[in-house]
Design goal:
It holds the Pfam family ABC_tran. By secondary structure, the chain is α/β, with parallel strands linked by helices. 62% of the residues lie in helices and 10% in strands. The chain folds into two domains: 342 residues, ABC transporter type 1, transmembrane domain (ABC transporter transmembrane region fold), CATH 1.20.1560; 239 residues, Rossmann fold (3-Layer(aba) Sandwich). The strands form three sheets. The chain has a six-stranded mixed beta sheet, sandwiched between helices. Helix 10 packs parallel to helix 13. 33% of the residues are buried. It binds adenosine-5'-triphosphate. Adenosine-5'-triphosphate binds next to helix 14.
Length: 612
């Protein structure tokens, strides 16, 4: 599959895409997409590369010194006695010390430079992926398990480190060592070089086979890891539900199966990698044997000295050793590319809902809202529409209540008005402007929504209220709560307004969360306010207490109230009844009751305490 921005990316579910990805072979050229990410840290990478080059030079100093010591360390005097050549020995000693000290210092420097670059690049990438995820449309989150996204930002980004950061300097060092050793061997004796080079075709064949067998398996490892992470995240989020339904055992079993799939793919990888590294080890031994046979012959024929033979033994390791390292580098490359592919899949996913190139302005919002012949389905191809040619107008400053049976499309209208989803037919208009022509952030600034299940962020109640008005003082925030009539309720909390709300507001009751969100909406002061079952979790007495405040909240703005407790919306300027995605009745409470139609039936059922 090409990693382009094809429409398929937008309609296929994330799971379908990933399964397809796991089955297919890895895409070539991924490395070239990764390369630009190194641009900000190029100085670190160049530094690490220079350090590796100097390190290689220092490594080759050693066999040269050994050759000098063997061939010239002892000099024969005229009397036929052997004397130590102190000049050579001293220089050899100094050379060895420089080589070891340089290696010690430069290896540390190279590690430091690579490590610093890694931290910068990978965290930069993490922020880019995070930012991208935030900009995706809500439809993407309907289709994608949150654990899969976590797996990409966390594990897949980490998997890139060995490929992108340590990879290039290590690869360069390995190639340099191999090439320099090859040249030195050739210069010592072409016979020695050719005897060693004969093992290269075997190595190439083994590399090709390894690549062929390993690459699709690495994609499977990454996919399996995403699956069990997704399951873990879902379990943590839904732990109460799992306990309540006594599903711990089956849930654990499912996790175990996912881990087993992961382990099996991992074992296959380990097997292949282990086989490859042992095979290259055998090749090195074979090379050494060839060198001893051919080198011994060269010494016997007087073509090379003993010192050169000893140095050549080192060159064998320098020549074939890096080829062994290539196996490890290759494994990292395949592993990293599998992760990179998944990250780019996410980065290439375009938000389904995008702003127009020059969006219309929405200053001085009056607050007129119109749903004009709206058709909408949650399915991308329009099957089973939830909203079917719905027409509904709300005048500026009007309080409209929307009622209707469960699952008939009331909340969907809110999603369309805030443009979390795009209509598939007709239009939603604010002050006569199609919401598709407006910038999303501007639209949402003017349309405030309080939902049944509201999310609070970790922090105090004040922190959460400040989200609506960042510059407000504590006194102003408390005054807003007072104006809505909930000051007393918040003050009774253990630390009043400074009470920590916990993750997603879990330390507060459902009703308390709803009240904090109402104050937050009041502070945001939107031109259009939507209350979607916003007080459903508040007890009836408290709701009655804040009824007056709610009326105040709705005053001077357009308000759309969705409620099942029909007593709370009786005073609305107008009530619209939604059934099967259409408006089937509208009017004031008394008129609708007199008509004796859908609303009257709903109301009678409500009064009788029945569910609808
Ligand atoms: N994100 C979604 N993806 C797919 N289908 C959805 C999604 N959200 C809602 N639906 C479906 O759309 C239909 C209308 O849902 P909606 O939430 O608008 O109903 P509602 O009238 O507000 O119900 P309630 O009174 O229970 O809040 C339902 O059948 C629901 O299953």
């Amino acid at each position: 599959m090409a990693m382009d921005k094809s429409p398929a990316l937008r309609v296929m579910s994330d799971i379908e895409l990933e399964e397809m990805l796991a089955r297919q072979k890895l895409q070539r050229g991924m490395f070239w997409r990764l390369l630009p990410l190194l641009r900000p840290v190029r100085h670190f990478v160049i530094g690490a590369i220079v350090a590796e080059i100097v390190l290689v030079a220092l490594i080759f100093l050693r066999p040269y010194l050994i050759e000098q010591v063997i061939d010239h360390g002892m000099v024969r005097s005229l009397e036929g006695l052997y004397h130590l050549n102190t000049h050579i020995m001293l220089w050899a000693l100094v050379g060895m010390i420089v080589s070891w000290a340089g290696r010690f210092g430069l290896a540390g420097l190279s590690q430091f430079l690579s490590g610093s670059a890694a931290i910068r690049v990978l965290n930069g990438l993490r922020v880019s992926v995070f930012n991208h995820v935030q900009h995706l449309s809500v439809g993407y989150f309907d289709r994608t398990k949150s654990g899969r996204i976590v797996s990409r930002i966390d594990r897949d980004v980490d998997s890139l480190e060995p490929l992108m950061i340590q990879g290039p300097p290590e690869l360069l060092s390995a190639l340099l060592r191999s090439v320099v050793a090859g040249i030195l061997l050739w210069l010592t004796s072409p016979v020695l070089f050719l005897s060693l080079a004969s093992v290269i075709p075997l190595l190439l064949a083994a590399t090709w086979l390894f690549k062929h067998l390993a690459q699709s398996n690495y994609a499977r490892v990454a996919e399996n890891r995403a699956r069990f992470t997704a399951h873990l995240v879902e379990t943590v989020a839904g732990v109460r539900l799992i306990k309540q339904a006594v599903q711990e055992a089956s849930n654990r079993q499912r996790y175990r199966l996912l881990i087993e799939d992961f382990i099996n793919a991992l074992i296959r990888n380990t097997l292949m990698a282990g086989w490859f590294s042992h095979f290259t080890g055998i090749l090195t031994t074979l090379g050494m044997m060839l060198l001893i046979v051919f080198g011994g012959r060269e010494v016997a024929l007087g073509h090379i000295s003993f010192g050169q033979m000893a140095a050549s033994m080192f060159y064998v390791f320098m020549f074939l050793g890096p080829l062994q390292e290539l196996g490890d580098l290759f494994e990292r490359y395949i592993n990293g590319v599998a992760s990179a592919q998944r990250i780019f899949l996410l980065l290439d996913t375009q938000p389904e809902i995008r702003d127009a190139s020059s969006p219309a302005s929405l200053s001085n919002v009056g607050g007129n809202v119109e749903f004009r012949d709206v058709v909408f389905s949650y399915h991308p191809h329009g099957e089973n529409p939830v909203i079917r040619h719905l027409n509904l107008k709300v005048e500026a400053g009007e309080v409209l209540a929307i009622v209707g049976p469960t699952g008939h499309g009331k909340s969907t209208l809110v999603q369309l008005l805030t443009r979390f989803y795009e209509v598939q037919g007709g239009a939603v208009l604010v002050d006569g402007k199609d919401v598709r022509t407006l910038a999303q952030h501007e639209l949402r600034r003017h349309v405030g929504v309080v939902l049944q299940d509201n999310v609070l962020f970790s922090g105090s109640i004040l922190d959460n209220l400040r989200l609506a008005r960042p510059k407000a003082s504590e006194t102003e925030l408390v005054a807003a709560a007072g104006a809505l009539g909930v000051h007393e309720i918040i003050s009774r909390l253990p630390h009043g307004y400074h009470t920590e709300v916990g993750a997603l507001g879990s330390h507060l009751s459902h009703g308390q969360r709803q009240l904090v969100c109402l104050v937050r909406a009041y502070l945001a002061d939107p031109a259009i306010l939507i209350l979607d079952e916003a007080t459903s979790a508040v007890d009836i007495q408290t709701e009655r207490k804040i009824q007056h405040a709610l009326r105040q909240l709705c005053e001077g703005r357009t308000a759309i109230i969705i409620a099942h407790r029909l007593a709370t919306i009786r005073d609305a300027d107008r009530i619209a009844v939604i059934r099967d995605g259409q408006v089937v009745e509208q009017g004031m409470h008394t008129d609708l009751m007199q008509q004796g139609g859908h609303y009257a039936a709903l109301y009678r059922a409500y009064e009788a305490g029945q569910e609808f």
